[in-house]
Amino acid sequence: MTMRTRKLIGTIALFFMIAVYALLAMVVAVALEVNTTSKFVELAYYFVAGLLWIVPAGMIIQWMSRDDAA
Question: Which residues of 6-33 are buried (b: 16+ CB within 10 A; e: fewer)?
């Protein structure tokens, strides 16, 4: 697969993954009733949820950046 094709697939996958992740984080926050807890717990949840998407996005970007020979 060429790098150009991987970048196209990876870009689509990133958009889809971020949209699904945002909805999932929202559902979890509502299910845990984060807004009714202390402000510190709410801040901690949104901090972790806001950074957690970086790990799978980084893996997709790393895959997109591979050389054509790999």
Answer: beeebeebbeeeeeeeeeebeeeeeeee
Q: Is 3 helix (H, G, I), strand (E, B) or coil?
A: helix
Closest alpha carbon to 27 in 54, 44, 45, 47: 45
Helix axes 3-31, 54-64, angle to 10 degrees: 170
Phi, psi of 37 (to 5 degrees): -85, -175
- Contacting residues for 66 by C-beta, under 8 A, at least 6 apart: 3, 6
**Closest listed residue to residue 56, CA positions, set 17, 7, 15, 8:** 17
pLDDT of residue 66: 87
* pTM more than 0.70: yes
